[in-house]
Amino acid sequence: MSSLLGAMHAWQSPRALAVLALLILAILLLSNLRSPILLDHGLQQEHTGADRTKWPPTLPPVDETEAYWLQTSLSGSFEDQSIEIGQRAGVLRDWIQSYDPYSKALHPQLHAESIEKAAVTLFPFLANTLRKSKSKNPMENIQPPFNKSSRGIVILTSVKTFRQTFHLLGALTEVVLTDLPIQIAYSGNDSLRSFQREMLAYRFPSISFLDISTLFVDNSLPLETSDSALKILAGLATTFEQFILLEANTVLLYRPDLLFKQSAYHRTGALLFGRPVQSPMRFPATYPPEVLTSHSSTEWTQGSDVKKTQYLQEKYWSVVVLDKSRVDVLIGLLHASWQTILNGHGRIDDTAPDREIDVWRLAFELTGSPHGLQTPSAAVIGWPRHGAEEEICSFADGYSEENGTLLWYTSLIVRKDEPSFGNDNVPTHRVVMLSSQEVLNGKDILCTVRENARTLTHAQQQIIQKTAQKAQQLDSEFGLANMHKSLTSSDT
Fold it and tell me: Of 152, 422, 451, 463, which is least packed with CB atoms within 10 Å of its CB?
């Protein structure tokens, strides 16, 4: 007892108290340091996944689990494999989020090298990535150190969409006047010819190019045929920390920067936009809805009509907004990439319009990765139908932000074969799509009842008109229409 009292007395000395204060300060500073993830790739730790009620989680040992994954090949249906990969990816996420090189006491079995090895075992295509840095760390190849201000736009482009890309770039830089840097993603010279890249760079000198094939050198990857696969792989390949994936047929009514300001994006780092399917009987789900409802606990699925129907009721188009620095988003991207690789091996039908929708949904839902879904965000953007004034018809789907403001629609801004719904090519009305659409004359013409239709504002119609005029100007300046016809006819 006397020795204990002596020790307590010693700690009451000013010098001892000063040492103790310094120790406490050091502990607090270390605890507030941003823990590097996978050799400090700049990933944000987000403890907001499907099950975060207990943190830190009880983690399985990395080496033993990786060995089990290596020895236990996936089998069964695509749905079964997707579920298993999703569960394994969730374990990988927990390892990444729990890894802290400054403190080995909490999870001493976590080592960056072991986690990297497990990631490659789970997603083998990571072993075949190659950047100019020639890093031996495959996850580092996909997640290089980020400049925290790196926000940008990624546009997937090919020979077939070259003309539309020209139009979109004209609208982005000279109509809506975005300040965001723009990256043109393609896959090798056959995907986008060198003279086409030269034309784009000449007309829009501020853009940069991203050749996906220079990052993914695995010949088994679907880098030539699947646009949905390339769109997802472009998300992995881009060096932007936060980015908007755009398809070339997007017509913007406002600066795309607004997408980064959506509350769902701030909350989750992943924002998708939804619309009802045109015809459930024409476009059935690639997988049964119970795959999601039984194996996902994310907020969206539990409140979705997927549980009530035999078909998926939402589909996503054109625009995806992602923050790749968040672990949840990265894990979702990896799962989506795994699906596209199976697709490249002929395992999944890529001809159905909802194929890409299934990929994104499976990726985020089955890995338990939170994401925002703007639905119902879609609308028919068009004109009253001649002979049926109670209907609004168009080739275009429109999408809104969370407060209902129409942000963009998907369409060819210049169409030679567009029927004369109105007096000119500028849409006049918008109707939110709350039910399925009919298809007229075998063409993808969307029609819906005129009830609750809204007239587009004068400012919105002006933006669309200026965008169309810019597209016509570029067509005339570079002969894009004839070039498109020549190139696409030679490819068929």
Answer: 451
pLDDT digits (tens, 9 = 90+) for 257-305: 999 999 999 999 999 876 544 444 333 444 444 455 455 544 444 444 4
Query: Nearest to residue 466, comparing CAs of 476, 478, 458?
Result: 458
Report yes or no: 167 and 474 within 8 Å, Cβ to Cβ.
Answer: yes
CA-only gyration radius of the chain, Å: 26
User: What are the structure tokens assigned to 112, written together?
Assistant: 């960056």
Residues of the chain with CATH 3.90.550: 36-376
- pTM recorded for the entire structure: 0.78
* Rama region for 252: left / alpha / beta (φ>0; ψ in -120 to 50; rest): beta
Rounded Cα gap, residues 189 and 415, in angstroms = 28
Q: What integer is the mean pLDDT of 62-81?
A: 87
Q: What is the 3-state secondary structure (H, E, C) of the chain?
A: CHHHHHHHHHHCCHHHHHHHHHHHHHHHHHHHCCCCCCCCCCCECCCCCCCCCCCCCCCCCHHHHHHHHHHCCCCCCHHHHHHHHHHHHHHHHHHHHHCCCCCCCCCCCCCHHHHHHHHHHHCHHHHHECCCCCCCCHHHHHCCCCCCCCEEEEEECCCCCHHHHHHHHHHHHHCCCCCCCEEEEECCCCCCCHHHHHHHHHHCCCCEEEEHHHCECCCCCCCCCCHHHHHHHHHHHCCCCEEEEECCCEEECCCHHHHHHCHHHHHHCEEEECECCCCCCCCCCCCCCHHHHHHCCCHHHHCCHHHHCCCCCCECCCCEEEECCEHHHHHHHHHHHHHHHHHHCCCCCCCCCCHHHHHHHHHHHHCCCCCEEECCCEEEEEEEECCEEEEEEEEEEEEECCCCCEEEEECCCCCCCCCCCCCCCCCCEEEECCCCCEECCCCCCEEEECCCCEECCHHHHHHHHHHHHHHHHHHHHHCHHHHHHHHHHHHC
The residues, ordered by sequence, that sit 6+ positions from 46 with a Cβ below 8 Å of its Cβ are 97, 269, 326, 327, 328, 370
d(CA 76, CA 61): 26
Contact 168, 157 (CB under 8 A): no
CATH class of the structural domain 36-376 = alpha beta
Q: Which two tokens stand for residue 258?
A: 């607004």
Please say whether the dihedral angle defined by the alpha carbons of residues 334, 335, 337 and 341, taken in this order, is positive or negative: positive
Pairwise CA distance, residues 154 & 211, whole Å: 12
